[in-house]
Design brief:
It is a single chain. By secondary structure, the protein is an all-alpha fold. Helices cover 72% and strands 0% of the residues. The protein contains 9 helices and no strands. It is elongated and about 60 Å long. The protein starts with a helix and ends in a 25-residue tail after the last helix. The C terminus is likely disordered.
Amino acid sequence: MGIKDYDTTIRLKPSKTVLTFSYVKRANAKLDNGDNTGAIEDYNEAIRLQPKNAVILTVVYLNRGLARFNIGDTIGAIRDYSEVIRLKPKNAILASAYVHRATAKSKLGDNIGAIKDYDDTIRLALENAGFAAYVYSKRAAAKLEISDNEGAIEDNAIAAHLDPDLAEAYGEPGGDKVESWKPYGGW
């Protein structure tokens, strides 16, 4: 379904559950299309409709955090990622929340906090070698920022071992994007 289909569903005022999922799906589509502000509005509405549904909220807060980060609201993004972590979802979403929050903390210069979040991500993501390699390379970058050169070299070596094709493990810039690890695609 496209955005217009979700618009129609929302206008029909279906059950609360269907309405919530329509807002979430439309917000995800808006996020994919770069309409971060529109996505945030729809995620806010989903939170209003389902304030106690932890399964929905974990996805909504994570994705709203992505949208907030994309528009430069790094503090708001960190709050959303922290809310996901507080809700204690299953590993994939929890790992995504930690890695996104770490990226946001790094952007604000809180590299110590970022490293702690990368540590938690690594503990959750070890079964996914590609993701773990990415996180090790991001943690290496944060370690460089605090002059932990030896730690950065170790992390990049692990990243290169886990994923020899990962450019960041060889000192290539990877930027602040973590879009490859967005969990909402199936929602």
